[in-house]
Amino acid sequence: MxxxxxxxxxxxxxxxxxxxxxxxxxxxxxxxxxxxGIVALILPIIPLLMLLEFILGLVYKKPHTKVYKVNFLIYLxxxxxxxxIAIAMxxxxxxxxxxxxxxxxxxxxxxxxxxxxxxxxxxxxxxxxGHKVRLFWCLHSTHHVPENMNLSVVYAHFFLEAPYADAIRxxxxxxxxxxxxxxxxxMFIDGTYGAFIHVGENLIKDARFxxxxxxxxxxxxxxxxxxxxxxxxDTNFCNLLNIWDRVFGTYQEEDREIEVxxxxxxxxxxxxxxxxxxxxFIALFKDMYNAPGLKNKLLYAIMPPGWxxxxxxxxxxxxxxxxxxxxxxxxxxLKKAEVxx
Length: 341
Fold this sequence. Notes:
This is Sterol desaturase family protein. The chain is mostly helical. It has 16 helices and no strands. It folds into 2 domains: 63 residues, no CATH class; 257 residues, no CATH class. The C terminus is likely disordered.
């Protein structure tokens, strides 16, 4: 009986309906007007959309069950290992850096907007380094392995990625004066929208969202980010506001003539939990072990994925440069895109 109750708690916890069930049980509907009540209403949206997406996949005969299965195993594994680590890291960074903020702000709407822009900058830094430093890529690659985009990809993360990400984002925000109470609200908004942009084609076919595609980051942009096509590699690192991608030249819209190919360039058994979760670490350790000299071993850890000590680099930058060079040949149209060095 205790086991069944434990499983039931995990299910309602996964669905995000724990708080709303408590509100209904107590009949305290007035709390729905508060921040906690709003959070209770919003939390179930992504899990319920994921279930709808999976059901539509069955209807369309595109269920991608392999992706859902492995991502669910990752969710369970991470629940066991890292439930409170990220929260502790946020609290630690706030306590450590709040007295050293270089800008003082107050509780006004324009400082909240400022805070969101700063948060996006912190998110850009974490995300960019997650693609450009191989050790960080080992943490982040689990999220990019799935060969199909759907809402279950939201749960595909290495358990140490959230603490690493929140350490960077929180530190940037606190040092630049973002108030902790604003930071909590921003993290909730950004986390919810950041989950939504993983919505798959079974639920939303064309995710450009019309004119919004020009002024914010849409699921279409994030589908591009998860692609391994040369045109799309290492672009669109932002989450809601694409301002920093435009500033640093990593912005890329989806080309209607180029189908998105999801996944990573390394050959992966995407139905194998070990390969999905630890595969990049195993590949890194092999490269470091075989590399001559301590310097080369260390460089494999800090240089971009695809760096080679013999100079035969296959980094995203090299792949994209080769792609655009090929496009510049006679009778081939050149598609311009700026890439952050």
